[in-house]
Amino acid sequence: MGHFGVEKTLGLLKEKFFWPHMRKDVQRHCNRCISCLQSKSKIMPHGLYTPLPVTSAPWEDISMDFVLGLIRTQRGFDSIFVVVDRFSKMTHFIPCHKVDDASNIAQLFFRDVVKLHGIPCTIVSNRDTKFLSHFWNTLLSRLGTKLNFSTSCYPQNDGQTEVVNKSLSTMLRAILKGTINLGMNTFPILSLPIIE
Question: How much is the average pLDDT of 26-42?
Answer without folding.
Answer: 75
